[in-house]
Write a structure and sequence with these properties.
With 318 residues, the chain is mostly helical. The protein contains twelve helices and no strands.
């Protein structure tokens, strides 16, 4: 069982390593796949926002989990139930509960805030990940990353503008980014011993069970049109993950980081043309600082990783 790499090296949406060595990676292919995945993801969020005007967001989140479970069950049956064996059932439960809260927070924020604003706040996830790396795993973070992290959090403060009467939706968006960082920590631990399919099955199963209770409390029977859109959310969510995984297997996460920020452009365009949302100057300013900080950290990590690899090569040659 391998030991996961330091969290401070992780700036992708998942703990995915490229299939090819650095010299054989295809950044253009990875970027193309990532842009398709991002487009599908924004399309997914726009449907959530559209449905959120008529349905409780918690019910939408439950249907998303349910459809995800329906998609994975035939694969489990075809592959064999042996794939469900795990040595960390408790950690899967913790991850499932954490993911349920993440999904509920994200959908609540989307139905009450501009899509671009939620997207901007989501860029703070790598910053929370760095903080966890220091506090939980006691990893060393150099001064450059510390300064960049502080600048990034200043960007978050500008976007969120915390106050005593802060909107619950804004708190949900920020909480979503924080818990996503926690989720990556758990994912990295599980990934050392469990298959991807195993992790997907348990997280969707637990999400479906956990979210069923609040969904029933706020239940509103969907129309056939709404059910069709809910099915689109499930299908597009699965398709988006497929493109994301293929993208990060084609190229380094740090090389794809600049393309990931196009999410804000897509989200702004969709929000403006379909929902009449106009992003305020505070959000643009804060997003600029946040993107600059996370991009710098990603590139810094890439440079340090190459230097460590070169040093290891020299040592082995001596």
């Amino acid at each position: 069982m391998s030991t996961p790499p330091p969290l401070s090296e992780e700036f992708a949406s998942t703990a995915i390593k490229p299939d090819r060595p650095p010299e054989g990676q295809d950044t253009l292919r990875g970027a193309s796949l990532l842009l398709v995945g991002i487009s599908i993801g924004v399309f997914n969020w726009s449907i959530v926002k559209l449905l959120g005007q008529e349905m409780p967001s918690i019910e939408i989140a439950w249907f998303r989990s349910l459809f995800g479970l329906i998609v994975i069950i035939p694969f489990i049956i075809r592959t064999g139930f042996g794939i469900l064996r795990t040595k960390r059932p408790g950690l899967h439960i913790v991850r499932g509960i954490n993911s349920s809260i993440i999904l509920a927070m994200a959908y609540y924020a989307l139905t009450h805030l501009p899509i671009a604003q939620v997207t901007s706040i989501s860029f703070s996830r790598p910053l929370f990940l760095l903080v966890l790396a220091v506090l939980v795993l006691h990893e060393k973070v150099h001064i450059h990353r510390t300064v960049a992290t502080v600048i990034g959090f200043i960007g978050v403060i500008i976007i969120v503008r915390p106050s005593t009467d802060m909107e619950p939706a804004m708190m949900a968006a920020l909480g979503n980014a924080m818990l996503m960082a926690v989720g990556i920590v758990i994912l990295k631990i599980l990934a050392t011993g469990d298959r991807t399919e195993t992790m997907i099955f348990y997280v969707t199963l637990i999400q479906s069970l956990v979210l069923a209770v609040p969904a029933m409390i706020y239940w509103q029977t969907p129309t056939w049109e709404q059910l069709a859109l809910l099915g689109c959310i499930g299908a597009s969510g699965t398709l988006m993950q497929s493109f994301m995984v293929r993208a990060y297997r084609s190229a380094e996460a740090s090389a794809l980081a600049p393309f990931d920020y196009t999410r804000l452009i897509f989200a702004s365009l969709v929000g403006y043309f379909f929902f009449g949302e106009i992003v305020d100057n505070f959000t643009w300013a804060g997003a600029g600082l946040l993107i600059a900080a996370t991009f710098y950290i990603a590139q810094r990590e890439r440079k340090m990783a190459k230097e460590e690899l070169q040093a290891a090569s020299i040592d082995s040659a001596q």
